[in-house]
Amino acid sequence: MKKLSFDYQMRLTFSAPVTDHRFQLRCIPATGPRQQIVDVEFTLEPDVPYETSTDSFDSVVVTGFIPQEHDTFGYRVTGIAFVDNEHIKPEPPKPLYRFTSALTEPGPVVSALVARCEELLRPLPGGATPVERAQVIMNEVYRAFTYTPGSTTVRTTAEEALAQGKGVCQDYAHVMLAVCRSCGIVARYIAGMLAGEGATHAWVEVYHGDRWIGLDPTHNRLVNDDYITIAHGRDYRDCMLDIGIFSGVNVQQTQWVNAAVHERA
């Protein structure tokens, strides 16, 4: 088990004032089978009323409305996470994680990777676990990519990312999900934070023995106690950390994000 402090900040700067801004955030980690979250503090800028609920994937959702003019919008979430991958609690599966989703639908390129992984999986013993099989797939996904920030967008599909052979953590996760599901492995997308400072992170969990086990294809390794889960779902679209709509004329927006996670004694 590790005790991790986290400080997650996001700020949008608009090129001109906006109004009638409705937002939906999934930025607050929740206590779950592999982590306990305490001492959470959440602040919004502008400081407006908001509502908190839980979606069908058990992620915390913050929604609100800003009618007045503003040229910045942001939030900050701080707290403590006790993470323990050695004692993950049982959790029932959701059948929908067996099937492809909008961003993980295989095309010719992903299908070719599926065929290659199936060849590699055949020599494994009959009792190979879903995690052992997923590790083989993870290694192939890792080999197929060059980590290249700015090469994809949040709308890039697994097929598109793999076709160009470059992307970011979201793309690694989507391709691994596509291959795992095609090979009969139940898998889901995870959005969260990783020890250190920088952007948020994405990885995959596969279902084995009544528990979800994390694998990080971007780093080609099993998830350890340095990872904090924020949201999970079928793909990125179920885990969007911040989305919204607003009124404005020819408005451009610039986003700044920093996620800081450090171990505490």
Task: Summarize the structure in words.
There is one protein chain. This protein is an alpha+beta fold and 265 residues long. The protein has two domains: 2-85 and 241-264, Immunoglobulin-like, CATH 2.60.40.2250; 90-238, C8orf32 fold (Roll). It is built from four helices and 15 strands. The protein has helices at 108-121, 130-144, 158-164, 169-182; strands at 2-25, 35-45, 50-54, 60-66, 70-83, 146-147, 166-167, 187-194, 196-198, 201-208, 211-216, 221-222, 227-233, 242-247, 253-264. Strands 1, 2, 3, 4, 5, 9, 14 and 15 form an eight-stranded antiparallel β-sheet that branches. The protein has a five-stranded antiparallel β-sheet with strand order 12-11-10-8-13. Strands 6-7 form a two-stranded parallel sheet. Helix 1 (108-121) crosses helix 2 (130-144) and helix 3 (158-164) crosses helix 4. The N and C termini lie close together (11 Å).
